[in-house]
């Protein structure tokens, strides 16, 4: 009888912990600014190997190591914005979700409930998607940043978003990685059939997206946009103290835009925080935004802050007419925790005094992110999705905008506090996946970049650089048909979460029953 020495067991545990952390680092290469999407598949294969024979606690710590190693570089922009301690705390806390995935997989695999080894890779992928869905709702409304699907916008798998959104893309990506891991195990176990078949199936999974039909054709006319990136001083959080300069920059950008091409536009677009001093209560800002609308000869969409509530403020997008009146308003539904509002403030203050720089919490708005824009050339009002900044990462907010009539999507954002990091390009990857998911032309309008125009197939046709003043014209197709992802999105997300939870529940129950069986 062979007995494995404790020393050998410790060495293997450290090796697998290091392998998991290395896999997390590999995953960062799949996201912008690197954008090497095959790295995501390799990272998941490495994680599969690291979790081989893991106990529940071993799976948790290996998964946590994977999550921390991935998130620390991935959300480096948080370090730029708020400092080292909040950045590290974010990575450590969010890494727990990956730890729960590792524990869940260990329970399911060790329970023996799957029977066939060929079921393991699909279940591995299913549990991963369930973990991502859990991250999307808890804590504090969720933090879905870093979902695998957002790394795959340049891969054939991105087209699967048209069918099932980011979860469908993640499911296929993780399945391909797990199949490679399964093939490696089969090689060591001398199972030639699995060694031969699993990689072929993995390749088939990667290319299956090519059969998904995508279209960029307008179904309901087109709309001409003027987009202004006014630029902001690269002063981190202090950029918010220069609101009037930011508005002046965007007004100057509007004049520069119209000077380059005197043609008509249907809508002028400024980004989030372009006019932070609310023009409804400030005469100078009102004069500036009205001048911009008159210069463009079209309504102006811009971001401002509404301080009218006694208990906080709203991050607001306004549609402003050439006569100086408000045509429509949208209030951000999902403020960013620890950035726009501070939950558990007294506890958070222990880690960073910067929390007190948020003196008035942003309150959640209500209603879908849509506005009706009168378009004279079409003789009707066009409904646009008006997503604000981090809301693009939340499936339900963008979906509601589309199912409530959004014919194109505009993502207004302010990336000034993140410096020269990849935060803006990571956000653009999300914007691109949303374009595919909902079959809508999508525009990302940023104060400092990256601003971009994206076709309904996810292709970037125009973009700007970081921390530059720039302007763009874009004629975007308008579409009203709903993709399968838009029709079935909400039930699909909850199904992934529920099925994953049930798998773990029954696996744990079976393991407990086996342990105490007489």
Characterization of this structure:
The protein has helices spanning 6-28, 38-50, 56-74, 76-82, 84-111, 120-135, 161-188, 192-207, 243-260, 283-296, 345-348, 395-403, 423-438, 484-515; strands spanning 222-229, 267-269, 300-306, 314-320, 326-331, 370-375, 380-388, 408-413, 442-446, 452-454, 460-463, 470-477. Helix 2 packs across helix 7, helix 6 (120-135) packs across helix 7 (161-188) and helix 6 (120-135) crosses helix 14 (484-515). The model has no long low-confidence stretch (mean pLDDT 93). 47% of the residues lie in helices and 14% in strands. It has 518 residues and is α/β, with parallel strands linked by helices. The protein has 2 domains: 6-214 and 490-515; 222-335 and 348-480, Nitrilase/N-carbamoyl-D-aminoacid amidohydrolase. The strands form 2 sheets. Strands 5-4-3-2-1-12 form a 6-stranded mixed beta sheet, covered by helices on one side. Strands 6-7-8-9-10-11 form a 6-stranded mixed beta sheet, covered by helices on one side.
Features:
518 residues; alpha/beta; Nitrilase/N-carbamoyl-D-aminoacid amidohydrolase; 2 domains; six-stranded mixed sheet; 14 helices; 47% helix; 14% strand
Quickly give the structural class: alpha/beta
**Average residue pLDDT:** 93
Bin the helical content.
Answer: 40-55%
CATH H-tier superfamily of the largest domain? Carbon-nitrogen hydrolase
User: How far do the termini sit from each other?
Assistant: 25 Å
Number of domains: 2
Question: Strand order, biggest sheet?
Answer: 5-4-3-2-1-12
């Amino acid at each position: 009888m062979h007995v494995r020495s404790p020393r050998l067991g410790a060495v293997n545990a450290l090796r697998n912990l290091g392998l998991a952390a290395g896999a997390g680092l590999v995953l960062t290469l799949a996201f912008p600014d690197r954008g090497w999407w095959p790295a995501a598949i390799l990272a998941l294969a490495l994680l599969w190997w690291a979790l081989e024979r893991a106990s529940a606690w071993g799976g948790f710590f290996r998964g946590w190591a994977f999550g921390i190693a991935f998130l620390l570089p991935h959300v480096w922009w948080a370090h730029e914005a708020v400092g080292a301690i909040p950045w590290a705390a974010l990575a450590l806390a969010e890494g727990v979700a990956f730890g729960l995935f590792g524990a869940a997989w260990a329970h399911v695999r060790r329970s023996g409930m799957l029977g066939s080894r060929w079921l393991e890779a699909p279940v591995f992928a299913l549990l991963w998607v369930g973990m991502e869905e859990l991250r999307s709702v808890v804590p504090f409304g969720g933090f879905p940043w870093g979902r695998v699907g957002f790394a795959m916008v340049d891969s054939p798998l991105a087209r699967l978003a048209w069918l099932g959104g980011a979860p469908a893309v993640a499911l296929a990506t993780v399945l391909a990685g797990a199949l490679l891991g399964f093939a490696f195990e089969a090689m060591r176990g001398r199972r030639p059939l699995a060694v031969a078949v699993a990689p072929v199936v993995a390749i088939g999974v990667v290319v299956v997206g090519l059969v998904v039909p995508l279209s960029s054709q307008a179904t309901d006319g087109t709309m001409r946009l003027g987009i202004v990136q006014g630029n902001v001083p690269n002063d981190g959080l202090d950029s918010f103290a220069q609101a009037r300069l930011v508005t002046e920059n965007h007004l100057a950008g509007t004049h520069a835009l119209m000077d380059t091409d005197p043609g008509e536009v249907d809508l002028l677009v400024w980004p989030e925080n372009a006019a932070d001093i609310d023009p409804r209560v400030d005469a100078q800002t009102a004069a500036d935004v009205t001048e911009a609308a008159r210069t463009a000869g079209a309504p102006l969409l811009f971001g401002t802050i509404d301080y009218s509530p006694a208990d906080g403020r709203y991050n607001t997008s306004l549609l402003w007419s050439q006569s100086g009146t408000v045509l429509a308003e949208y209030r951000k539904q999902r403020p960013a925790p620890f950035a726009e509002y501070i939950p558990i403030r007294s506890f958070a203050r222990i880690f960073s005094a910067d929390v007190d720089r948020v003196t008035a919490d942003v309150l959640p708005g209500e209603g879908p992110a849509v506005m009706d824009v009168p378009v004279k050339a079409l003789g009707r009002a066009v409904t646009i999705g008006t997503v604000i900044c981090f809301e693009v990462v939340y499936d339900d907010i963008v979906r509601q905008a589309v199912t409530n009539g959004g014919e194109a999507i505009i993502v207004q954002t302010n990336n000034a506090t993140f410096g020269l990091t990849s935060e803006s390009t990571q956000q653009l990857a999300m914007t691109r996946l949303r374009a595919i998911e909902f079959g809508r032309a999508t525009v990302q309008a940023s104060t400092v970049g990256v601003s971009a125009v994206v076709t309904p197939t996810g292709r970037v046709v125009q973009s700007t650089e970081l921390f530059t003043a720039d302007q763009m014209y874009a004629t975007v197709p308008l579409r009203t048909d709903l993709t399968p992802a838009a029709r079935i999105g909400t039930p699909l997300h909850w199904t992934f979460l529920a099925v994953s939870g049930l798998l773990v529940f029954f696996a744990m129950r079976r393991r407990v029953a086996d342990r105490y069986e007489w």
